[in-house]
Design brief:
Keywords: Coiled coil. It is built from 6 helices and no strands. The chain has about 230 residues and is mostly helical. Helix 5 runs antiparallel to helix 6. The radius of gyration is 58 Å and the shape is rod-shaped.
């Protein structure tokens, strides 16, 4: 019985010792974790304060530079105008190309410059070839149009002569009709009176027709056709 009691006591002591050790270990870990958390929090707060301070100082510096720029523009309007004009010229294609040639263009190697010029020359040759082909087509079209124009002009001139000749014939018919009217006036018969009326209508029609023909011929004359 004594042996059992002693074993039980030893076992109890061992358990108590283990519990105390485990408790101390847990408490130590908890204290260490809390200390690390506190340190991390303090470090984070320092970083945040530093970042905010840097931002504010940077923002203030930017506003200070902006104020200085505005003041400079007010005090040096002529120089600012010249600077703006220079910037505008740089933006334009022509001055920008010249600036490129005089600065960055010189930094390229001779081989790269030659290849760029060769490419441009090839493109120019292709463009010229296309333009020459288009010129040949236009010349052919112009030759055909001239041929048609000459043929049409010849026909117009021939028609103008025919119109002029017909107008002359119509006027001759008009004169003949007027002479007939004069001859019919010497005849007192009713038949002669009726015939004279018919001839007068024919003379009036011939006069109108001659005027139309003369107008057509005159239109061709004004256009340089006849």
């Amino acid at each position: 019985m004594d042996a059992i009691r002693e074993a039980a006591q030893e076992t109890g002591k061992a358990v108590d010792s283990g519990v105390r050790a485990a408790s101390e270990l847990l408490l130590s870990g908890a204290h260490e974790a809390a200390a690390q958390y506190q340190a991390t929090q303090e470090r984070s707060e320092r970083f945040l304060d530093t970042a905010v301070s840097h931002y504010r100082s940077t923002e203030q510096a930017a506003f200070d530079k902006l104020k200085e720029g505005v003041a400079f523009v007010r005090e040096h309007q002529a120089a600012s105008t010249a600077l703006a004009a220079g910037a505008a010229l740089v933006i334009l294609p022509g001055p920008r190309r010249i600036l490129w040639r005089q600065t960055l263009g010189r930094l390229r190697s001779k081989e790269a410059q030659y290849q760029a010029i060769e490419t441009r020359a090839r493109q120019a040759q292709e463009t010229l070839t296309q333009q020459e082909a288009e010129a040949v087509k236009l010349e052919q079209r112009l030759a055909a149009a001239r041929e048609q124009y000459d043929s049409g002009l010849s026909k117009l001139r021939s028609t103008a002569r025919q119109l002029e000749s017909l107008a002359s014939q119509v006027r001759s018919t008009e004169r003949t009709g007027r002479n007939l009217i004069l001859d019919l006036r010497e005849l007192p018969s009713k038949q002669a009176l009726g015939l004279r009326s018919e001839v007068a209508m024919q003379v009036a029609a011939a006069k109108r027709q001659a005027a139309i023909l003369d107008k057509q011929v005159w239109g061709l004359v004004k256009k340089g056709v006849y």
